[in-house]
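Task card 7
Instruction: Convert sequence to structure tokens.
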Amino acid sequence: MHFVISREALLRPLQMVSGVVERRQTLPVLSNILLALKDSELSLTGTDLEVELVGRVQVDQANTAGEITVPARKLLDICKSLTDDSTVEVKLTDNKLVLKSGRSRFTLTTLAATEFPGVEEEPDTFSLGITQAKLRELLDSTSFAMAQQDVRYYLNGMLFEVGAEYLRVVATDGHRLAMETVNMANSISETQQLILPRKGIVELARLLSDEGGSIDLTFGQNHIRAAVPEYTFTSKLVDGKFPDYNRVLPKGGDKVLTGDCQELRQAFTRAAILSNEKYRGVRIILSNGELKILANNPEQEEAEEVVSVEYQGDAVEIGFNVSYLIDVLSTIASSKVKITLSDPNSSALLEADEGSDALYVVMPMRL
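Output:
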């Protein structure tokens, strides 16, 4: 294998693909990325056995085709440290990868390409096309509600529900839920539910750009594949059943208030400073025209915020984890937020006053 490429052209796919590679690995080859040169196209592949990302880039000069795996982190650090407008000559000699750029020379150890694990091929069941900007909006508005390391492993990811006329994404960690739906025509006869793992969502979001065109999502029994011109992303699906989110959506809330999103977020952020660091609880008292936020902590310190809201009706007092409310208010793109409450033991439903179909549910706390 022998080729010449500009540093700039190599760096971007290298950064994207290296993001998939975990630092601590049980198999040494999983710390490597696979470089494969065919004609004048260089493909770079990284995997952690759950998520795989392939990046493709044209080289300036292709002398000898071939494939080999090299340490991802070291190759990335070398490319980052070279000067901006430099070119890199890459040559495989005696099972070592030699990189030359200007007066610098690096020799990296390699492992055979045959050791590199590939994603098992499986028949596709259905696919859909969506603009990158819209998919990114769906992921950005819901991904914060995914669980991190929950024993209920199916919560450590996001539900993709595909119907004949819509795509819906849902994330929940058992204390809060985020959901958004986009109307689109899909060529499937019955509704499908698939769970993407958390890491798959993070890596997929990194691929998407607001200026990019459409992206094709292809679903199999155990995998999802996403293709954009320079990259192909593949992720295993989580084998499990996602909870019925319809049962979580609060019904019959009779106390509806509308407030300024920014103003409420700032008030909650200030009150959070003196909330209990462990439980992050705040008390909300809603009365005609105003929302009062109270926080205290074991050191007997207290915070009180009063925000003007549009509300007429019975007073209600209810406790929440303030971090969950701040997360939602930071995500909603609209200037106003609509909050529906019913009683101290029921969840709150938050949604943008206009311009978005996203729904957010936050469970109450006993304080």
